[in-house]
Design goal:
The protein has about 240 residues and is of the alpha/beta class. The chain has helices spanning about 30-35, 50-60, 90-100, 120-125, 140-145, 160-170, 175-190, 205-220, 225-240, and strands spanning about 40-45, 65-70, 70-75, 90, 105-110, 115-120, 130-135, 150-155, 200. About 45% of the residues lie in helices and about 15% in strands. Keywords: ATP-binding, Cytoplasm, Kinase, Nucleotide-binding, Transferase.
């Protein structure tokens, strides 16, 4: 499983609301902008081989305001992976201690390895206004939604199981036994697609990437986000100053 990273809203920052000038509830006060200053958490899941990791990598390269939440894992680093960048690599004892301390907002056992997302790091980044993306399986996504019900969940589908198996074999990373396990797990994972907000079929990579980017962009255009960015301009226009 690729794993990387919803939460109680942050408390409102203190501030003095501007006086309105007859505009009533349409007024965009300072408190409004401060209350809305929270990042969006995007949760992305998919069966192994569906192309999730490649899509996420391309998405992050094209969206500088979106950050990948780095997960903890007990598996060994693969070639080219850097501790603290791709994952926080820890031993089983350290991972189990963090579980006992309730340090994870979600954690799961996937095949022979454990993965988890640190609660404190995730909450702090969102409260600082960062948009975060989590690569996790359906088990982790379910736990995240319990803690962060406002999270936006996206499931990446392969065009078919036949194509999924072909992609797994073309990677040349796994034995026939491991591929058989991954295919069995894929069928189980696919049964949970109904728990997600959005579905994207990765048939053609560029099309799937465009759909994923459009989805992220749309959330950046929500009223609350735009109020945060353009509150002063809106105030000025309502007051007839611009």
């Amino acid at each position: 499983m690729s794993h990387s990273n919803a939460s109680e809203p942050p408390s409102s920052a203190p501030g003095q609301t501007k006086q309105t000038t007859g505009q009533g509830d349409n007024k965009i006060g300072k408190n409004d902008a401060e209350d809305d200053k929270k990042g969006t958490l995007f949760v992305v899941s998919a069966p192994s081989g569906a192309g999730k990791t490649s899509l996420v990598r391309a998405l992050l390269e094209r969206n500088s305001n979106l950050h990948l939440s780095v997960s903890y894992t007990t598996r060994a680093p693969r070639a080219g992976e850097i501790d603290g960048v791709h994952y926080h690599f820890v031993n089983r004892k350290t991972f189990e201690r963090m579980v006992a301390e309730n340090a994870f907002v979600e954690h799961a056992q996937v095949f022979d390895n454990a993965y988890g997302t640190a609660r404190k790091t995730l909450r702090q980044a969102l409260n600082d206004g960062q948009d975060l993306l989590l690569e996790i399986d359906w088990q982790g996504a379910r736990q995240v939604r319990t803690n962060f019900p406002e999270a936006v969940s996206i499931f990446i589908l392969p065009p078919s199981l036949t194509e999924l198996e072909r992609r797994l074999r073309d990677r040349g990373q796994d034995s026939d036994e491991i591929i058989a396990r991954r295919m069995a797990e894929a069928r189980s994972e696919l049964s949970h697609y109904g728990e997600y907000d959005y579905l994207i079929v990765n048939d053609r990579f560029e099309s799937a990437l465009a759909e994923l980017r459009a989805l992220i962009c749309a959330f950046g255009l929500r009223r609350a986000t735009q109020k945060q960015k353009f509150g002063d301009t809106l105030d000025a226009m309502l007051e007839g100053e611009a």
